[in-house]
Amino acid sequence: MNNKFIALLTFLLLICQLTAIPTAIAAKNIDDLVTQGKLAISLKVNQKPQHIVGQALVLAIEISTDRWFATGSQVEHFTLTNVVMQANNTITINGSKRIKGQTWAIQTHEITLYPTKSGDYQVPPITVKVSVNTESDGIVSGEFSTQASSFTVELPQALAGIKDFIVSPQVTLSIDGLFDEEKDYAVGDAITQTITITASDIPAMMIKPINLVVNNEATQGKTEVDGVSIYHKTAQVFDKSNRGSLLGTRVESYTYIFEEPGHYVIAEQVIYWWNSQSSTLERLLIPASSWRVSGEGLSQVNPANRLKGLNFTVETIIAFVIVILLLALTYVGFIKRHYLSALFNKLTKREQRLLRSHFLTCITNHNYLAATQYLYQYALFSNKQTHQKNCPLFDKLNKLAFNENNVENGTVSLSINEAKSLIKKIDVSTKGTVKSDNFIPNERIKLNSE
User: Fold this and answer.
1) Global pTM?
2) What is the spatial distance between Cα 126 and Cα 1, in angstroms, rounded to a whole number?
3) DSSP one-letter code for 431
4) pLDDT digit string (tens) for 136-158?
5) So what's the architecture of 166-293 in CATH?
6) How far is 179 from 407, CA to CA, in rounded Å?
């Protein structure tokens, strides 16, 4: 009786232990993983204690799981009013961290924003697509969203009333092409001025265009002024990234063409720069420019006065003579180009070289009939005929050219080296110091039909 009671008690204890062991709950979707505490998402606004208009602000979206990601998570596109967002403004960082003694996989998306106005901003829930490789349910994919958030952007009192300014820890300005106030420009002269602005930690799109104003004695405060044509080249705007540090550059180029005499002035231009490192307002100056245009242009200057201004040196005269000679030679060469071409071909024996090449090609391709014709023409250029007495190589060529049976049966053959020997015999016989009795002048190759 005691043994049965002990066995029953042991069985009941075993049942209790089995029911006490937690069983894994199947995760059918992303919400199940979040509910089970196996997936989490958070949104953090990384901003300065005093964040001002135009300063970069980062939204950090962190997705974490106790397993690992099957694919990279993706942040759905969203918009915010009065905020500039670049096309590729998201940086994704993969990592891991320990949570309650367990290693979790982390994916962080950092999104950079540039607020354009002061005030409070509300960030709505941002949807993220994610795919997790679970332990027992395979790959679970879906969407879930961050919590809503907010941030505040301020405008320092020093920037009140200033429309355009740059927010950056470092800004540089360079100007190429300055006006000479002491020079008396002539009608028809032109000056090109290039202004380059470079700022760190901001994209070039946040650097505003430069508006230069030209004045003259008759017209005040107009960009388009009578007497000067201003051509503004499309601004070059580009960004560079060096070890995670962004560098934005804007290049403005203006060309001024002087059309009428007068006194002209470009007003001073101020570029306002909020130094985010020292939290101070600084100014970069494009200095004012002034110049005078005289009434004498290239078409109005007296030829005598123009010649007086020229400085004729020996070097100038020599250069001028060389240019004239080159032009003359070019003209004569163009007129006599056919004669020069024929002379060149004769001196270089171009046609003979082409005939020799065609002859050897025909021998290689076993086209012996055509080969005899090219050899005949080659000999004509060498002032010789191709028929020889007691020349086995010529006999071979004739047999191959006019009797196809020899080619088909292979009873007669002519190698490329033997063909070159034929050419060599013609070349040697044309030399004045060497005479060959093998050649009979004024005879041609006799066909079998003859």
Assistant:
1) 0.56
2) 69
3) S
4) 788 899 999 999 999 999 999 99
5) Sandwich (2.60)
6) 86
